[in-house]
Amino acid sequence: MNTTIDRKEIDFFSNLSKEWWNLDGPFSSLHKFTDARVQFILRNVVRINNKANVTPPLNGLTCLDIGCGGGILSERLCRLGGEVTGIDVSQKAINVAKYHSSKSGLKIKY
After folding, report:
1. How far is the C-alpha of 103 from the C-alpha of 10, rounded, in Å?
2. How far is CA 88 from CA 4, 10, 42, 74, in A?
3. How many CB atoms lie within 10 A of CB 28?
4. Which of 37, 52, 82, 87 has its CA 20 to 30 A from that of 68?
């Protein structure tokens, strides 16, 4: 069976699993870039749903975070009211995401 899964990439991110939530670590740029990703999502949700004043803004929406890693974007979407599912090929990253979301009191399906 053909696959686009890159074992070296999975191993690279799996080996950094303890760093996902270190704001000054190797994923610091991803944490900063997530602000732009969230703004993009919110702009388009408002445009598509034509509901500018819904609070929380993702209330009632199902969100799928493909390649969620340690859950950085998944947690932000959940805090904005989304019903979030995160998937990733790295089990270590998923374990970090599950642990962090649980510690944060967020209900995210990984």
Report:
1. 25
2. 13, 9, 23, 12
3. 12
4. 52
Structure tokens that stand for 21 in this block: 């939530």
> Residue 75 in contact with residue 106, Cβ under 8 Å?
yes
Token pair of 101 as six digits = 């979301």
Question: Token pair of 110, please?
Answer: 């990984």
Helices (H), the chain: 7-15, 28-49, 72-79, 91-103
Four-CA torsion 54, 59, 60, 66, nearest 10 degrees: 130
Helix (H) or strand (E) run with residue 90 in it: none
State the pTM of this model: 0.88
The residue ranges of the chain whose pLDDT is under 50 are none
